[in-house]
């Protein structure tokens, strides 16, 4: 017995020593990023998704870039001009090489854009949708022709990453998923799925070698884990800080929180074009959401201030319109009306539903910040104006196809005008559903107002920004009068970082390690 | 004996085949993966193209046959999310899960068997009563809540142990193991302890019950009358008789631990198979879920088979048949 | 089952203090669950009663010992934890009992048929049971719920599907030994139909081991439901069970809101402990091999 006891004691001492030895001591030259999502693939066209695009943007470059505020700047192309309104000529830099030493030429640009458009698994086909053809003029000049006059082509090119033709042609699709050769500031060193993705600085980067020499991305999808890693010093920077942890991080030493308004609107869509809606229960059996008074009742009946304060912990801005102030098309004359449950009840009564009705609110539970909690809070709010709301919060992979198949009546969803132009929302969501002409792809509620359509089309057909703004503002006012959608709030992107890291977040939620400096 | 073994092997294959069929049927009906592989802007034509490319437009039996053909070659398709072979993704993570499962089981066995034996031999003592109450508590605590409590106490409040991840790993014989580094051990303690508590309680109760039954039997009285010391009687003769059920349970429970590891791995962000499968379920990543179910079935079947063989050797009654 | 047998049973049962304690605990949880609508300060499933302004309130019970809403704190949607735990206990017990009854009924019936009829039927039923047993229980339930979606009814069915095999195997084993006994021969000789023999003659005699199994499986069922709800695959989030509450609490644990995950866990532990203690004592009393 005695030997067992002393053995146990030694074991205890040994484990205590192991525990007290500090964990991984990384060199001062390595940045560790605790990420909320792991990138899906290092093949940049495989899937257009923010975490994947964010990582790939460190490895690849595009012809032009967005800066932190989403203004266009030259990148691989140093200059461009329009000989006519369907043609663009891009002049490429001559001093760029890929990570394997091969030179970057116009052939790579042509190859990349064409692959982007034609590869069967490409997630960027729509981004390159307006491009008719790409022609190599010479090794460092490229001519792009568009199908129609397309003033915002550079904003689309800023999303198409340039791959090395030789590398792609020499390897299988599978190989390209986790091996990458780009022109960007960082090269891939290793990727152990679920554990770490390691990058090393590209010393020959055309903008100059990066300051931080090594980067490790650690996927820490579990939010409490991610926060714990930041607080214990295991990572230098984390994205998607849970709103509840902000105060704790602010209170801690050596770490700080930085947040910025994002481009994302969280809003509700309603089924408006059919008498029989799948998830509504009324005494008459008819769809109450077709009546604008009911839609307005929902709007007045949601206590958004409480949601922002208690569910989002203050990290959101209540929205009165469809895009935030940083987006071109914003109308600062529009204000969100205050929460008014009495008015909501009155409107319901007027519309013929004095006792309310039953409805299901569908929502993803893993896509937007606190999405399922927002849905629950909305259900509570609406319960107080007499509606019986059931919440169906499901994973995004099931949710989005379900909305596409129109198996919903009322759902929560988000939208980000990624290129900072309201046209994306108006064309894609508010316009009548017209897939052949490319309008209303996400108008799942099938809202339709011909006058609004006219204004939207007028806006996309003009190049004059003042005229565009006018049309877009008028369109939005009508859309809001029709209560086609119920805007909830604009999200804020919240990041947290160690005080030894110098960095300010970008508007598009991409994380560029080139911009960072470690002290 | 050989006949018995062959019969068991045949049974294993039958089980695997049935499982593969049932699982395939379920996944086939569980939602369209194509729509979520492409971005929302994809046109109907692009959706059809991809569907054709993945072979998802073929009739059910053709898909199943092709699935079986590939499965026998070890190819269970590519993950829809990572675009890599599903089998590879699961197999990559087996060492992590096994490390957790085996550590937990070892912990449970090393502590449980002596504790159970003590509780059987000295049932009236204070320590025995404590052990038995503890074991009752142990099987009543839900594993996931225990894990959370451990995290709360040892990570959040006391800050002694890390709350997630595997820590540093070192490669040994081609396998990544965390137990070889002090940081890895620190990360292993809480999750292994979480799983071990339930197994420990189970083993204590089993050993105690078995031991008490054995000690009542005549041959024990005979041995004691012969003059053997209590130590010999307990540790050699009595123990041999309880080893059969103990080994059986340990083997079977190991399979259960691997399955239940899903929950522990989720709480501790342990990068094993379980965490991958939960993510894949939520992500509708059909091939990975299928691969996981088949691989775990295989493990379960092999474990049961091994347990049967060991059982056969340990139990003279079967051996002599 | 006459009065004297019951009395004897009770005498022996009450010899153990833990058994009695278990019985008491179970009874307490059962009554708390049944009386939940009456004794809870709030109905946590009624969305109209939840106000976000009440979210994340700290427990006050241990500082001012009063019976009020939010005495054990509130969760992120403004639910009173005490009420949510009572209603959660309800769900746990409901799912545990319902799934046990269903799987016991189905399993016993199938085992009875398999054991009595023998031959092909027996082989088929047992083969299916064996195949299902070579698969970890939690995975079966997980896959069912992942495909089917959340729902109270669905999870009862899923757990029943997982558990029927245990009853079937036991019932079959007992039936096999009962089948050879005299009273069965006698009934057969008189010309009683097999169905009636199975139900009227054999069934009452195999109930004891079935009850023993049930006491073990019901605790498992409760834990399985809470585990699935914890993983988000069980009951819907607007009518949370103890597992869902623990999950919600876990996500905010690091922000300092510990009561949301700890108290429901205590509730869960108490009911399972009670059932286990009760079951233990029952098994000891019914186990012939421990009789000296």
Structure description:
The complex is a heterotrimer of chains A (519), B (321) and C (292). By secondary structure, chain A is an alpha+beta fold. Chain A contains 16 helices and 20 strands. In chain A, β2 (64-66) and β3 (72-74) form a beta hairpin. The longest helix of chain A is centred in the first third of the chain and has 19 residues, at 2-20. Chain A is globular, with a radius of gyration of 26 Å. The model of chain A is unreliable at 6-26 (pLDDT under 50). The mean pLDDT of chain B is 80. Chain B has a two-stranded antiparallel ribbon. The longest helix of chain B has 39 residues, at 230-268. Chain B has 13 helices and two strands. In chain B, 77% of the residues lie in helices and 2% in strands. By secondary structure, chain B is mainly α. Chain C has 292 residues and is mostly helical. Helices cover 73% and strands 0% of the residues of chain C. Chain C contains twelve helices and no strands. The longest helix of chain C is centred in the middle third of the chain and has 37 residues, at 81-117. The B-C interface holds B 11, 14-15, 18-19, 23, 26, 29-30, 133, 136-137, 139-145, 148-149, 151-152, 156, 212-213, 216, 255-256, 258-260, 262-263, 266-267, 278, 281-282, 289, 293, 296-297, 300-301, 304 and C 18, 127, 130-131, 134-139, 142-143, 146-147, 219, 223, 226-227, 230-233, 243, 246, 249-250, 253-254, 258, 261-262, 265, 268-269, 272-273, 276-277, 280, 289-290, 292.
């Amino acid at each position: 017995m005695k030997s067992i006891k002393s053995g146990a004691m030694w074991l205890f001492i040994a484990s205590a020593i192991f525990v007290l030895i500090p964990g991984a001591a990384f060199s001062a030259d390595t940045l560790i990023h605790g990420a909320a999502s792991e990138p899906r693939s290092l093949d940049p066209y495989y899937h257009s998704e923010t975490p994947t695009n964010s990582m790939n943007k460190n490895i690849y470059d595009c012809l032009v870039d967005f800066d932190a505020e989403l203004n266009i700047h030259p990148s691989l192309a140093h200059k461009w001009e329009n000989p006519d309104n369907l043609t663009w000529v891009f002049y490429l830099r001559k001093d760029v090489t890929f990570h394997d030493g091969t030179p970057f030429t116009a052939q790579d640009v042509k190859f990349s854009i064409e692959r982007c458009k034609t590869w069967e698994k490409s997630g960027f086909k729509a981004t390159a949708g307006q491009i008719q053809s790409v022609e190599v003029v010479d090794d460092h000049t490229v001519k792009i022709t568009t199908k129609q006059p397309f003033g915002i082509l550079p904003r689309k090119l800023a999303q198409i990453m340039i791959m090395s033709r030789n590398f792609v042609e020499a390897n299988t699709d599978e190989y390209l998923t986790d091996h990458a050769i780009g022109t960007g500031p960082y090269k891939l060193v290793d990727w152990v799925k679920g554990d770490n993705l390691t990058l090393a600085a590209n010393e020959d980067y055309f903008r100059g070698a990066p300051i931080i020499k090594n980067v490790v991305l650690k996927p820490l999808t579990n939010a409490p884990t991610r926060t714990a890693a930041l607080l214990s010093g295991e990572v230098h920077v984390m994205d998607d800080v849970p709103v509840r942890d902000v105060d704790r991080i602010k209170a801690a030493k050596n770490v700080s929180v930085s947040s910025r308004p994002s481009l994302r609107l969280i809003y509700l869509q309603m089924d408006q074009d059919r008498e029989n809606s799948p998830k509504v229960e009324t005494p008459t059996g008819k769809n109450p959401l077709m009546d604008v008074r009911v839609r307005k009742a929902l709007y007045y009946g949601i206590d958004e201030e409480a949601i922002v304060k208690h569910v989002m912990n203050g990290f959101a801005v209540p929205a009165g319109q469809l895009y935030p102030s940083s987006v071109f098309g914003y109308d600062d004359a529009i204000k969100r009306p205050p929460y008014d449950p009495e008015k909501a009840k009155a409107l319901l009564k007027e519309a013929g539903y004095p006792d309310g009705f039953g409805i299901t609110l569908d929502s993803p539970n893993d896509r937007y910040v606190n999405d399922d909690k927002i849905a629950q809070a909305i259900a509570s709010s609406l319960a107080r104006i007499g509606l019986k709301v059931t919440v169906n919060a499901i994973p995004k992979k099931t949710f989005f196809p379900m909305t596409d198949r129109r198996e919903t009546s009322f759902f929560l969803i988000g939208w980000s005008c990624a290129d900072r132009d309201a046209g994306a929302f108006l064309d894609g969501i508010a316009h009548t559903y017209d897939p052949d002409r490319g309008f209303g792809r996400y108008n799942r509620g099938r809202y339709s107002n011909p006058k609004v359509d006219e204004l939207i089309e007028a806006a996309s057909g003009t190049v004059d920004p003042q005229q565009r703004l006018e049309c877009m503002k008028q369109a939005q006012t009508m859309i809001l009068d029709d209560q086609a959608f119920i805007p909830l709030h604009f999200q804020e992107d919240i990041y947290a970082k160690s005080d030894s890291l110098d960095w300010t977040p970008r508007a598009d939620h991409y994380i560029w390690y080139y911009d960072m400096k470690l002290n | 004996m050989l006949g018995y073994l062959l019969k068991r092997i045949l049974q294993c294959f039958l089980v695997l085949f049935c499982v593969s069929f049932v699982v395939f049927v379920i996944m086939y009906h569980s939602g369209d993966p194509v729509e979520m592989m492409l971005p929302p802007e994809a046109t109907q034509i692009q959706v059809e193209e991809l569907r054709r490319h993945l072979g998802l437009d073929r009739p059910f039996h053709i898909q199943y046959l092709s699935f079986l053909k590939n499965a026998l070659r070890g190819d269970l398709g590519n993950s829809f999310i990572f675009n890599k072979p599903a089998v590879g993704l699961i197999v990559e993570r087996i060492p992590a899960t096994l490390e957790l499962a085996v550590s937990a089981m070892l912990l449970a066995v090393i502590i449980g068997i002596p504790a159970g034996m003590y509780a059987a031999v000295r049932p009236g003592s204070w320590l025995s009563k404590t052990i038995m109450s503890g074991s009752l508590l142990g099987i009543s605590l839900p594993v996931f809540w225990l894990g959370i409590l451990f995290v709360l106490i040892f990570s959040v409040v006391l800050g002694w142990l890390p709350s997630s991840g595997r820590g540093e790993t070192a490669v040994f014989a081609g396998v990544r193991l965390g137990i070889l580094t002090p940081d890895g051990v620190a990360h292993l303690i809480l999750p292994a302890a979480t799983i071990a508590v339930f197994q420990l309680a189970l083993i204590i109760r089993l050993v105690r019950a078995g031991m008490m039954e054995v000690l009542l039997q005549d041959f024990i009285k005979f041995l004691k009358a012969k003059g053997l010391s209590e130590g010999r009687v307990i540790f050699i003769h009595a123990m041999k008789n309880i080893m059969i059920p103990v080994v059986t349970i340990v083997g079977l429970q190991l399979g259960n631990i691997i399955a239940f590891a899903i929950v522990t791995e989720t709480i501790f962000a342990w990068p094993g198979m379980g965490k991958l499968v939960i993510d894949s379920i939520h992500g509708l990543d059909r091939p990975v879920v299928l691969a996981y179910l088949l691989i775990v079935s295989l493990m379960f079947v092999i474990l049961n088979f091994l347990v049967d063989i060991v059982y056969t050797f340990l139990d003279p009654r079967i051996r002599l048949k | 089952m006459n009065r004297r047998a019951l009395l004897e049973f009770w005498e022996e049962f009450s010899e153990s203090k833990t058994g009695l304690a278990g019985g008491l605990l179970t009874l307490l949880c059962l009554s708390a669950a049944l009386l939940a609508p009456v004794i809870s300060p709030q109905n946590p499933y009624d969305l109209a009663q939840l106000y976000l302004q009440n979210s994340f309130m700290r427990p006050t019970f241990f500082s001012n010992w009063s019976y009020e809403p939010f005495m054990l704190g509130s969760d992120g949607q403004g639910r009173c934890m005490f009420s949510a735990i009572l209603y959660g206990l309800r769900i746990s017990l409901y799912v545990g009992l319902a799934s046990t009854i269903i799987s016991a009924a189905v399993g016993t019936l199938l085992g009875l048929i398999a054991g009595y009829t023998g031959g092909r039927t027996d082989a088929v039923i047992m083969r299916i049971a064996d195949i299902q047993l070579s698969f970890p229980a939690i995975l079966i339930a997980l896959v069912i719920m992942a495909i089917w979606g959340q729902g109270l009814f669905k999870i009862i069915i899923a757990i029943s599907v997982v558990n029927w095999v245990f009853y079937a195997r036991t019932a079959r084993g007992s039936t096999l030994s009962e089948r050879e006994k005299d009273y069965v021969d006698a009934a057969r000789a008189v010309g009683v139909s097999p169905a009636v023999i199975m139900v009227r003659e054999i069934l009452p005699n195999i109930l004891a081991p079935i009850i023993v199994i049930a006491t073990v499986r019901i605790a498992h069922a409760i834990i399985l439901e809470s585990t699935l709800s914890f993983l988000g695959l069980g009951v819907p989030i607007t009518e949370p069970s103890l597992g869902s509450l623990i999950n919600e609490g876990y996500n905010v644990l690091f922000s300092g809101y510990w009561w949301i995950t700890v108290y429901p866990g205590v509730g869960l532990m108490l009911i399972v402990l009670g059932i286990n203690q009760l079951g233990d004592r029952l098994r000891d009393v019914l186990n012939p091999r421990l009789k000296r």
